[in-house]
Design a protein that fits this description.
β4, α4 and β5 form a beta-alpha-beta unit. It is built from 15 helices and 22 strands. It is globular and about 65 Å long. A 6-stranded parallel β-sheet has the order 3-2-1-4-5-6, with helices on both faces. A 6-stranded parallel β-sheet has the order 14-13-12-15-16-17, with helices on both faces. With about 475 residues, it is of the alpha/beta class.
């Protein structure tokens, strides 16, 4: 696929890195020549220096035969105008814009063909807030990703000694609950002086303490499964109630507002260094959200604010080093769980799952929203995992037995690579938003067995330990006019 990316900042850099690895033809536009030289030296892509709202610059970037435009420059206005020019002048089929301002998502007049002609608006801050909200909902999880409109979840958790499911083989766990819609799809195991190593899952695989376990399950089962992998014995799950946010920027403010909507459920404190921003935050947030002026790496401040009673400490500033240091300090002083927002992926790789429970990369949180537009076939959701190495993919089976390689066939008959793990099937989702209520049936979350037959409109969720396997899955699900 031929793709133009407008903007070589943090989001543009991460998007380019991910898409280049899939052999796409990438051109990046930016006004900063040095940024572009850095990208060109790292990745197999082309840089064009200039303003993305200039038709001549877009033409130089190859807009006349481009398949996808991703406008993620710093300014909303630039991204919106670039999408409109891409539609009118170059007829680029798919246009995605990064927009921080609220209000565009729900107004078709602004983003539709007669407006700015944006097919999809993405907001990294909104993606981060939504993702952190899931981590608050499931306190044991290291990652939580949704599929099939929230009916199924993929979550990862660190297995702990003494938890009910730890020490057992996968076959034993299946035998204990054969009808529960849960499947363990991957394990990453720690070895001395090595990165976590992928362990393929079959019936004989035993879950060991310290494993990072990826579980696909119907949403109603996910909390129980996470607790059974992480909770020791009969210890009760401790819900998140007390939250401290370091950093009152866009993400911190958005998250505090989201938490405030659940009146009385959370006690939230925000630590912000800038006095003027503190005043602004206090005016924008409810009175029960405490805004503190100070430095989150100040041991005295954390002590005075009873950090040892905090269920979740979130470092959400723009400074990676400060986020890391404040999380390490908060953890040492007794915070139950800490999360650091880290832009540099190399830092995130080092920190994730160590003293810092969760190291979250902003670009990775929203990357799946973009990848769904790059995938071939009827892909509904994509989630990039393990720093972009692995992927979880939701794809819809279309056609019939004559036009499809999967519809009407048993799982055992599908020609899938051995490393591809089919995790769940969600059956009965409406094929169109216009389906009448009387024609709807209650969706089922099915654990596929070798004898399970794939039906048309099944939403099938896969775990792929390597992104190179994506094309094999897409090819298998492709619908042909005639299939022999």
């Amino acid at each position: 696929m031929k793709i133009i990316i407008l903007g070589a900042g943090r989001v543009g850099h991460s998007v380019a890195e991910s898409l280049v690895s899939e052999r796409n033809d990438i051109t990046v536009i930016d006004t900063d020549a040095e940024r572009l030289r850095d990208l060109e030296s790292r990745f197999d892509l082309r840089g064009v220096v200039g303003n993305g709202i200039d038709p001549a610059v877009l033409a130089e970037a190859g807009a006349h035969d481009t398949d996808l435009l991703i406008a993620c420059a710093a300014q909303d206005e630039t991204n919106l105008v670039c999408c409109k020019i891409a539609q009118i002048v170059f007829n680029i089929p798919t246009r995605i814009a990064r927009v921080r301002s609220s209000g565009f998502d729900n107004d078709e007049r602004l983003v539709g063909p007669e407006g700015f002609a944006v097919d999809r608006i993405i907001c990294p801050e909104e993606s981060l807030t939504r993702y952190i909200g899931k981590l608050i909902e499931y306190p044991e999880a290291m990652q939580v990703r949704e599929f099939a409109g929230g009916r199924a979840c993929l979550a990862s958790v660190r297995a702990r000694t003494g938890a009910p499911m730890v020490g057992h083989t996968i076959a034993e766990l299946r035998a204990g609950a054969p009808d529960v819609a849960v499947r363990i799809v991957a394990i990453y195991r720690r070895f001395p002086d090595e990165p976590d190593r992928f362990v393929a899952c079959d019936g004989n695989t035993r879950i060991e303490p310290g494993d990072e376990v990826f579980v696909l399950a119907a949403s109603e089962h996910i909390a129980h499964v996470l607790a059974a992998l992480h909770r020791r014995g009969a210890t009760a799950v401790q819900p998140v109630r007390r939250i401290m946010i370091a950093g009152g920027g866009r993400v911190g403010l958005r998250l505090a507002r989201q938490l405030a909507k659940q009146a009385g459920r959370f006690r939230v404190k925000i630590v912000e260094g800038d006095m003027h921003r503190c005043t602004e935050l206090a005016s924008l947030l409810p009175s029960d959200t405490l805004v503190l002026q100070g430095d989150a790496t100040d041991e005295d401040l954390l002590g005075d604010e009873n950090i040892e009673e905090i269920d979740l400490f979130l470092a959400l500033t723009d400074d990676d080093e400060n986020n890391i240091m404040s999380c390490l300090l908060a953890k040492r002083m007794g915070a139950r769980r800490v999360l650091a927002l880290i832009n540099r992926r190399s830092y995130a790789d080092l920190m994730h799952g160590t003293q810092i429970d969760i190291a979250l990369s902003p670009a990775q949180a929203m990357l799946g929203e973009l990848l769904a537009y790059v995938r071939q076939g009827d892909v509904q959701a994509v989630h990039s995992l393990r720093r972009g190495v692995a992927e979880a993919l939701e794809i819809v089976a279309r056609g019939d037995r004559k036009s499809s390689r999967v519809v009407g066939r048993k799982v055992s008959e599908l020609q899938l690579p051995g490393e591809v793990h089919m995790g769940l099937i969600v059956r009965g989702l409406p094929d169109s938003p216009d389906v009448s209520p009387e024609d709807l049936r209650e969706p089922q979350v099915i654990i596929p067995r070798s004898s399970t037959v794939i039906e048309s409109n099944d939403h099938v969720v896969f775990f792929l330990p390597h992104k190179r396997l994506v094309r094999d899955v897409e090819k298998l699900f492709r619908v042909s006019a005639t299939f022999f």
